[in-house]
Specification:
Layout: H1 2-25, H2 36-49, H3 51-54, E1 68-72, E2 75-79, H4 102-111, H5 126-136, H6 142-145, H7 163-175, H8 179-182, H9 220-229, H10 245-258
Antiparallel strand pairs: 1-2
Helix pairs in contact: 2-5, 7-10, 9-10
Bound molecules: heme C (2 copies).
One heme C (HEC) binds near residues 180 and 216.
């Protein structure tokens, strides 16, 4: 009898905690929900422009399959279209583990992705681009279950690209072991470079700073965003917790040097 009572107590307190958790975190809102008409329209846009790469199920297995395969530094690199079913996105202005904002997705869909052969879609009407974004959200239930994360506020300090900031960034590049993946000179040939795999188990190259545009974009603000958000799913970590804001900007200064974008 005594034991039964205890069990009852446990059940009640667990139930209480569950209710409390919901009260504190809020029941997932439907802030992402789009109406059926938009989704239908988005589906048509997807079938016209995206399905060849991203596949009818949004799993990246379109007719195109592999977008590019090439040999670099002795190993074969393959680029696949993104699989939307996991709901993991790389180019965000939100924290690591978060879903991207609509603006993040619009930027990618409009501008395409440099170095990854995803084309730009500036010629598709804005309405259609917005609709296709709602449609790709239907491939993963993360969009129904999770609340939106707030995007970062990005404000470039005046010291970026100053000699002092570059020096500090250079030290951080060493201390934070960026070179393990990216190499001492930022050529993507670090000691770990050969073993890097993305979340889907495919080989991935660490960025070669001398090779041109970041996938995120080349402005200082884009580089800062890459360091703050991380490129989820790619192995490129977020440094939001392990580096102070100023430090991330110093690293931006040094990145500009490695990319040959300042003296
Ligand atoms: C020629 C092939 C190709 C076409 C066409 C294409 N994509 Fe992509 N897309 C890619 C590749 C490759 C990637 C992965 C790039 C990477 O991870 O570096 C990608 C990634 C993405 C991402 C992920 C961005 C992130 O933050 O991770 C989105 C969203 C996306 N594509 C949307 C679209 C939409 C919408 C269309 C149609 C309007 C489209 N793509 C057409 C090849 C393509
Ligand atoms: C565990 C390996 C690893 C470490 C450590 C690492 N990176 Fe990366 N980084 C990557 C990979 C892999 C990519 C390529 C992602 C892609 O192409 O989608 C990348 C991409 C980048 C990019 C290009 C982003 C873009 O938008 O294309 C920059 C810049 C960068 N890293 C800088 C750094 C700096 C600075 C550090 C240290 C603070 C660092 N990385 C630490 C693996 C790593």
């Amino acid at each position: 009898m005594k034991i039964k009572n205890k069990k009852f107590l446990v059940v009640v307190s667990v139930l209480f905690l569950v209710v409390l958790a919901f009260a504190l975190t809020g029941i997932p809102s439907d802030s992402y929900a789009a109406d059926n008409k938009t989704i239908e329209k988005g589906k048509k846009v997807f079938e016209k422009y995206c399905v060849i790469c991203h596949g009818p199920k949004g799993d990246g297995k379109g007719l195109m399959g592999i977008v590019s395969r090439y040999q670099k530094k002795g190993s074969v690199q393959t680029i696949y279209p993104r699989d939307f079913t996991t709901g993991v996105f790389r180019f965000r202005t939100t924290g690591t583990g978060c879903l991207p904002t609509n603006d993040d997705l619009l930027r990618v869909v409009s501008g395409g992705i440099p170095r990854a052969y995803m084309p730009s879609h500036e010629d598709v009407s804005l309405d259609e681009r917005k609709a296709v974004i709602e449609y790709i959200k239907t491939f993963s239930k993360r969009w129904k279950e999770e609340e939106a994360c707030k995007p970062f506020v990005v404000k470039k300090p005046a010291f970026v690209a100053s000699a002092e900031s570059i020096e500090k960034g250079k030290k951080l590049y060493k201390d934070m072991k960026c070179w393990e993946c990216h190499g001492e000179q930022g050529r993507g040939d670090g000691t770990k470079a050969d073993q890097l795999k993305d979340d889907w188990g495919d080989k991935i190259l660490a960025f070669d700073f001398t090779s041109g545009a970041l996938k995120m974009g080349v402005a200082s603000e884009n580089v800062y965003t890459a360091y703050t958000a991380g490129l989820d799913g790619s192995g490129m970590p977020s440094y939001e917790d392990s580096m102070k804001e100023d430090e991330r900007w110093h690293l931006v200064s040094y990145t500009l040097v490695l990319m040959g974008r300042t003296k």
